[in-house]
Amino acid sequence: MSRTKDFVMRIGWPRLIIGLFFVLLIVVSPFMGLKLTDVFSDVLRRWAMFGVLVLAMVPGVQSGIGLNFGVSLGVVAGLIGSTSAIELSYRQGVQRPWADLGFALLIAIPLAAILGFLYGLLLNRVKGSEMTVSTYVGFSAIAFSNIIWLSLPFKSGVLVWPIAGEGMRNTINLEQSFGGLMSNPAVVAGLPRGLRWLAFEVGGVVIPLGVILFFLAMCFLNWLFLRSKKGIAMSAAGENTLFTRSNAINVDHMRILGTMISTVLGAVGIIMYAQIFGFLQLYNAPLMMGFQCVAAVLIGGATTRRATITNVLVGTLLFQGILTTALPVIKRLMPSGSTLSEVLRIIISNGIILYALSKTKGGNQVEK
Amino acid sequence: MEGPPILSMKGISKEFFGNQVLKNVDLIARPGEIHALVGENGAGKSTLMNILFGMPVIHSTGGFKGEIEIGGEKVTIANPHEAMNHGIGMVHQEFMLIPDFSITENIKVGREIGKPTMLSKFLGSSMDILDRRAMSKDAQNALSRIGMSIEDYVKVAGLPIGYKQFVEIAREIDKTGIKLLVFDEPTAVLTESEAERLLDIMRRIARQGIAIIFITHRLDEVLAVADSLTILRDGELIERTMTKDMTVVEIAGKMIGRKVERLVDVADTVRELDDDTVALELRNFSVAMPGEQVSQMDVSVKKGEIFGFGGLAGQGKIGIINGIMGLYPSEGDALVFGKKLQLDRLGDALRNGMAFVSEDRRGVGLLLNESIERNIIFSSMQIHNKFLWKRGPFSTLNRKQSKEHALKMIRLLDIRCTGPNQKSRSLSGGNQQKVCLARALTMDPNILIVAEPTRGIDIGAKKLVLEHLVKLNAEKGVTIVIISSELVELRSVCDRIAIVAEGKVSQILPPDASDAAFGLAMSGMSIHDAEGEGEVHHE
User: Fold this and answer.
1) Domain termination site, one of B208, B231, B260
2) CB spacing of B378 vs A365 below 8 angstroms
């Protein structure tokens, strides 16, 4: 009896219930006419897609700025990096997917670091209400990026509106660039033999191994960092500022460091996201991106004060898993042709966020 | 000052969770009498007053034993409002004033005078309009009763501290039927001249037939204004007597009056104190820590010494460690073995071979959600780069080394835990304190400053912690500074004890100095002052 209790305590009720719901959906889906292999492929794909973005929550929470709703700032940096890389290839008149991916990261990471630094300075001035402020930083970043998308002097036909000839499109196809490079078996099939392992099918289930490995590598780097001297100092800053100060660590510097890493991960995350998705979505598309990441990590068992890599791995799987399996199931249940399923999608995704935020205390962390 | 007492508390006993804080205490105050209530921190003064005012903290912890009589009638006071109705008022140490209200508004707050309006006919008196003229008249009246002339429409926010205190008093005086006024450490925040003035006002109020209970730690003030006094010690009534029969030295002796217990049984090793080498020196040292101000303190601690800082709460002894740690801004110089610390640079003290155990265990001393192991090695890792493992560009934690060290410390200090991975939050207070100490010891310091090392921990752990400090000093020659509210503890381990009063060192005493000397030092006087000039304060 006490063993089951221990087990539940360790996993936490929210994860147990949501996990069971997830399993239930998977069990039900074949009866609703869905192919189980498709369901698994989708879940795996979405997990890898959002992984790095959700991982961006960890350094923020650990350094004490709370859940980084403003991760959109990093997203904008990532999008600028990606579009610039595509434009660069266009100007040089070549098609080079790998170089595009490399340049996208090369441009996005320093840009995100600079933005993250400034964002960190801002957050240090609003201690105590970081999460509210970061929400609005996220919104403002998106609004500001709208101006950027309209005014960047890019010429590539893939990027700009075909009729006007200026201003970037809402959705940019990455087919000729890095779309699906590490995740889509069809794309990977065109690569040299040595790289075919990046994505493949096993019994009808698509395994985007390249992206999954990339995601896991990022997790490992983060884990390593959190065990380094700086990383431990940063985590301490997030937990107890007085303790940290009394050990000669500048709390404000640590918070800026955490914000920078979080923003950079946001930039890398959106590039990976676009890579799997096959499209770049500009303008207001990433507006709610921060909320999805927050919800995922919270469902994974993080609190506003503590988050671990495990929280990211589990949370992303549960949150994205439920979204990907629940929607087709609901769609079958709904009368055809109605937009009700879209409404339900919004209710479910926001409902999960609301539920997760109301349970910000992890199941296994009892505050005294 | 004869006549029937206005207040008589008889046989008051109170325990908090099995801890007896008041044992059969009596308190009597007569009309027109200024009655002083003196005692160390923890003697039971505040609890007695909380009982008198029917504070919720008393009733929620099981009430108290004993009787309260007001004007000869037995009463039960269930809440502060009833206390007010019985004519009991309190002047708080921290002002309970609304800064943006005028003096009149502050005096009349909660007891406003209203004029009926159209609305109030329908909606009741809460819709009355304020009768500002009547209120102003009342306020002026109350102010003049305490001999203050100030425009009553001025906002409280800009007033000097002394005046705020007077507004507070005026508010109590203005309450109709006030019979007894309690002054809780009223002079603690006042300048000398303001304090003089306050004492005058107290005499003036007493002459109007109101009884005053005066709680203070300044014994010279007791002699200056009080007619009679009650001395409490460890929750017991020591004496109720007329002030004129007592000297400052006698009062101080009775306040402290405890035999020195040996808390520590370490065989007295012969230690060679190096009189010439100063380990820690504070020159003109001030710390802006709210509630524990240190002002221009000068003191020096010899190498190899166990040095104690004692004194009452709020007098600044806690500020010393927090200033040196750099948690609160400080001015003046702190020198470690002759080297001046740059206290504005975070951690300069740590880098110069000092280590600290903070008085605020849970707030400053521990990472509550981290393991014991992580807590123990944290400072040493961050400051001295120990327990790290170079791995490419990263230097990451060396788990093996840190675990070994944590286990060693757990054995050494007898930390009761399930293992080095247990979260420090789930440890008992005593074991948490040991973890804090282990963290400081891991720094391998030359000077160790420990604040309130035994606060809130049981007697066994207390003994172990103190013994370990003594041992550390004897074996490794570490200079140890102990800051503690428990005089007994300081007297049992220290070579010298500095008593801090009002942010300064009032006296440096050997542990075997008389109780009276310690008591006097706590109220900022020396035994010479008391025997020589003490009488001057009498009028």
Assistant:
1) B260
2) no
